[in-house]
């Protein structure tokens, strides 16, 4: 998933202002693969272990002395506004901060927050999308 200019992003009790985009990636970290003796092509594949990673890009206008701590876990809420209530959506997940880094281009500063989504149960999807009719 990719969200450009979300209406709002909140991590726990903190509103993250200036978020320009959010990328949510689903990754297979372990695959089961099988071939048979009749040829070189893969016959079966399944993702046996998955991870959902999140990147939040935030434009920073001044000093930033209150970035989230690595290892912090909280609810991540991303509000997506498409111009009317019927198309608005909310993306929810429980997430853990992996890293916080900064980049600079001229006078612009961007903070990148990397998180990983976690699930209460291993067979439940960690990300929920609510709304949108």
Task: Provide a brief overview of the structure.
By secondary structure, the protein is mainly beta. It has no helices and nine strands.
Would you spell out the secondary-structure blueprint of this structure?
Blueprint: E1 2-4, E2 8-11, E3 14-15, E4 19-34, E5 44-60, E6 73-80, E7 89-105, E8 108-118, E9 127-131
Antiparallel strand pairs: 1-4, 2-3, 2-6, 4-5, 5-8, 6-7, 7-8, 7-9
How much helix is in the residues?
under 10%
- What is the CATH class designation? Mainly Beta
Structural class: mainly beta
The topology string of helices and strands comes to EEEEEEEEE
Number of strands: 9
What would you report as the Rg, rounded to the nearest angstrom?
A: 18 Å
Q: If you average the pLDDT, what whole number results?
A: 92
* Uncertain runs: none
- The coarse silhouette is globular
How much strand? over 45%
Number of domains: 1
Q: Main sheet, how many strands, which sense, barrel?
A: 9 strands, antiparallel
If classified by CATH, what would the architecture be? Beta Barrel
Tally of DSSP helical segments? 0
According to CATH, the fold-level topology is: Elongation Factor Tu (Ef-tu), domain 3
Care to describe what's here?
The protein is mainly β and 133 residues long. The protein has a single domain (2-31, 46-131), classed as Beta Barrel (Elongation Factor Tu (Ef-tu), domain 3), CATH 2.40.30. The chain has strands spanning 2-4, 8-11, 14-15, 19-34, 44-60, 73-80, 89-105, 108-118, 127-131. Strands 1, 2, 3, 4, 5, 6, 7, 8 and 9 form a 9-stranded antiparallel sheet that branches. β6 and β7 form a beta hairpin. The radius of gyration is 18 Å and the shape is globular.
